[in-house]
Amino acid sequence: MRSSSTRKSWRPRFAPPDPQPSQRQCDHPGCPHGAEYRAPQARDRLNDYYWFCLDHVREYNSAWNYYAGMGPEEIEAETRRDTTWQRPTWPLGMQGNSRRFTFTVHDPFDLMDKEAEDRHVKARMPPTPEEEAMKVLELSGSITFDMLKARYKELVKRHHPDANNGDKQAEERFKRINHAYNTLRASMAAG
């Protein structure tokens, strides 16, 4: 039976202990302290570093200006490139140089079609009495009272029971025309 103190390890049995990392010296002239903090050396060499102690890295960072020596146009161009992480971009709908990127969206409920949405809303809502009256009088758009009166006279002459020898269908149509005319006249008087 094995005791719990004899565990196997992945390290060799007599391996020397890990060496301590060497302490860097601060790159500030005359500083005896160790360097724990890095700072870029220049704008064009952002991966090359100076190593400083805490006091000197604070001093260096307060004086650091990435855009030093650049003109306003260069700063603007650099800022614009940085907004896309220095990657090329294209206008929406374009890929590469000039190939047009097209796609279609399956929209069975016409959620992205405003005209279709308006048609669906109109189909779901019952027509107003004024809309029904306009349909009976075969009118559309905006009308004046004179236009309404002229259309009414024309339809009354055509569908009056005396002009149709007592035809019941003409009589019913005549009643609907009178009702539509009164509805529109009252609506115009109120508005």
Secondary structure elements and pairings:
Blueprint: E1 37-42, E2 45-52, H1 54-63, H2 72-82, E3 94-95, E4 99-100, H3 114-124, H4 129-136, H5 145-159, H6 168-190
Antiparallel strand pairs: 1-2, 3-4
Helix pairs in contact: 4-6, 5-6
Report what the structure shows.
The chain is mainly α. The protein is built from six helices and four strands, in the order E-E-H-H-E-E-H-H-H-H. Strand 1 (37-42) and strand 2 (45-52) form a beta hairpin. Helix 4 (129-136) crosses helix 6 and helix 5 (145-159) packs antiparallel against helix 6. 9% of the residues are buried.
Overall average residue pLDDT: 81
Approximate helicity band: 40-55%
Question: Could you give a short account of the major beta sheet?
Answer: 2 strands, antiparallel
**How many individual β-strands?**
4
Q: Helix-strand pattern, N to C?
A: EEHHEEHHHH
Beta-strand percent range: 5-15%
Strand order of the largest sheet: 1-2
Overall 3D shape? rod-shaped
Rg (C-alpha, Å): 44 Å
Low-confidence stretches: none
Structural class: mainly alpha
Number of helices: 6
Span between termini:
104 Å
Give a quick summary of the entry.
The protein has 191 residues and is mostly helical.
Task: From the structure above, extract its key features.
mainly alpha; two-stranded antiparallel ribbon; two-stranded antiparallel sheet; 41% helix
